[in-house]
Design a protein that fits this description.
CATH class: Alpha Beta
Number of helices: 7
GO molecular function: ATP binding; ATP hydrolysis activity; transmembrane transporter activity
Protein name: ABC transporter ATP-binding protein
Number of strands: 10
Oligomer: single chain
CATH architecture: 3-Layer(aba) Sandwich
Organism: Mesorhizobium denitrificans
CATH superfamily: P-loop containing nucleotide triphosphate hydrolases
Largest sheet: 6 strands, mixed
Keywords: ATP-binding, Cell inner membrane, Cell membrane, Membrane, Nucleotide-binding, Translocase, Transport
Family: Belongs to the ABC transporter superfamily. Macrolide exporter (TC 3.A.1.122) family.
Strand order of the largest sheet: 6-7-8-3-9-10
Strand content: 25-35%
Number of domains: 1
Helix content: 25-40%
CATH topology: Rossmann fold
Order of helices and strands: EEEHEEHEHHHEHEHEE
Structural class: alpha/beta
């Protein structure tokens, strides 16, 4: 069996000291193989966001081990984790996080700037990514000139423009109406099915989680269920 892309081994994440001590994660273990689409669910304070921050190399365990690509990512310093993120992870957020005074294409180019890619190649790759999300004709529009669904598709283009190993999606439909939500999820599903892109997605919406192959549910820092999603069954 091939090595999983993501592996948690008895991961704890603790905040505070003494009576204020809180275990956001309490000895959590799970793995995600390459090519899987996983939804992570749970109420506020359940540990799901903490787990996603560790998956995305934005945070590290207090105890236990987090392996990404076979590397003990929790043991890396901040700079090396930033390199790992830049090379291998794309991010999508609920609030889009687009720069307001730059065009769609310029927003998509940003991860390529951090990689030191030249202007002509950045523009070409950004236009290709926008075409893949159905926004080739909106490349020179600013976020204010785009609908919420279009802004999220620009954010998806920005996340995939570097051809990442992992896509981390934090409530990607949280600001969208039902129709736009399902359009975004169809797009993510197509990248998972057609490219084999691994996706880890936090959501509180059961119908959105059904797009995933598998759903992991957190409660009070523990995993309370981990199984195949209804649509994947």
């Amino acid at each position: 069996m091939s090595q999983p892309l993501i592996k948690f081994e008895k991961v704890w994440k603790t905040y505070g000291e003494g009576e204020a001590r809180v275990n956001a994660l309490a000895g959590v273990s799970f793995s995600i193989p390459r090519g899987e689409f996983v939804a992570i669910m749970g109420p506020s304070g359940s540990g799901k966001s903490t787990a996603m921050n560790i998956i995305g190399c934005l945070d590290t365990p207090t105890r236990g081990r987090y392996d990404f690509l076979g590397i003990d990512a929790g043991d890396l310093d901040r700079g090396r984790r930033a390199i790992l993120r830049n090379r291998h992870i794309g991010f999508i957020f609920q609030g889009y996080n687009l720069l307001p005074r730059t065009t769609a294409a310029e927003n998509v180019e940003l991860p390529l700037v951090y990689r030191g890619i030249g202007a002509a190649d950045r523009r070409r790759l950004a236009l290709e990514a926008l075409d893949q999300v159905g926004l080739a004709n909106r490349a020179d529009h600013t976020p204010a000139e785009l609908s919420g669904g279009q802004q999220q598709r620009v954010a998806i283009a920005r996340a995939i423009v570097t051809n990442p190993t992992l896509l981390v999606a934090d409530e990607p439909t949280g600001n969208l109406d039902t129709q736009r939500s399902h359009e975004v999820m169809e797009l993510l599903t197509s990248f998972n099915h057609e490219r084999g892109l691994t996706i880890a997605m936090v959501t509180h919406e059961a119908d959105i989680a059904e797009y995933a192959d598998r759903t992991i549910r957190f409660l009070d820092g523990h995993i309370v269920s981990d199984g195949i999603s209804a649509e994947a069954a």
